[in-house]
Amino acid sequence: MYFKLILEKAEPSNDFYFTEIPNDTSNIAKEHTLSMEDAELLYDKYAERINVECDVYIGDGDANYFNAEQCKKIIKWLEKNIDNEDNIKLKDHLTILLQYAKEAVELGTWIIIEI
After folding, report:
1. DSSP secondary-structure letter at 35?
2. Which pLDDT belongs to residue 11?
3. What DSSP character marks residue 19?
4. Coil, helix or strand for 6?
5. Which pLDDT value is given to residue 109?
6. Is 0.85 topped by the overall pTM?
7. pLDDT tens-digit map of 70-94
8. Helical segments of the chain, H only
9. 29 near 7, Cβ under 8 Å?
10. Span 12-63, pLDDT tens digits
11. CA dihedral 20, 49, 66, 113 (to 10 degrees)
């Protein structure tokens, strides 16, 4: 298992869910990859909580696209919960997710989370 977070710089299409990251990487503004250990911990600890509270889906095995509106929900949840994380590495990864989500909202684009 690994966890890749991507901020796209292009306008999103009407279809926000794909099963893999596009082959054309020219649209990638930023990319962050976690170690397998960190990815498993982050997924186990946060994926379901974010899914339920933000009405999104972070799933194992697919690339999940989140548009600006979905990013707003993720931002709100992270801002409320990020300071409760004691593991410095996980907190750093969550901070990057927060940053990417905020930038996606500002740009009107999306983020991709692939696990």
Report:
1. -
2. 59
3. S
4. strand
5. 83
6. no
7. 999 999 999 999 999 999 999 999 9
8. 36-42, 48-54, 68-81, 88-107
9. yes
10. 555 544 545 556 666 777 888 888 888 888 888 988 888 898 888 887 777 7
11. -40
Cβ proximity of 113 and 17 under 8 Å:
no
- Domain edges within the chain: 3-114
Using CA atoms of 22, 25, 31, 36 in order, give the dihedral in degrees to the nearest 10. 50
What is the crossing angle of helices 68-81 and 88-107, to 10°? 150
Amino acid letter for position 21 = I
Nearest residue to 56 (alpha-carbon basis) of 90, 17, 27: 17
- Take residue 22 and report the two structure tokens written for it: 């596009």
State how far the Cα of 29 lies from the Cα of 42, in Å rounded to an integer: 23
* C-beta of residue 38 within 8 angstroms of C-beta of residue 3: yes
Residue 107's nearest CA partner among 28, 15, 8 is 8
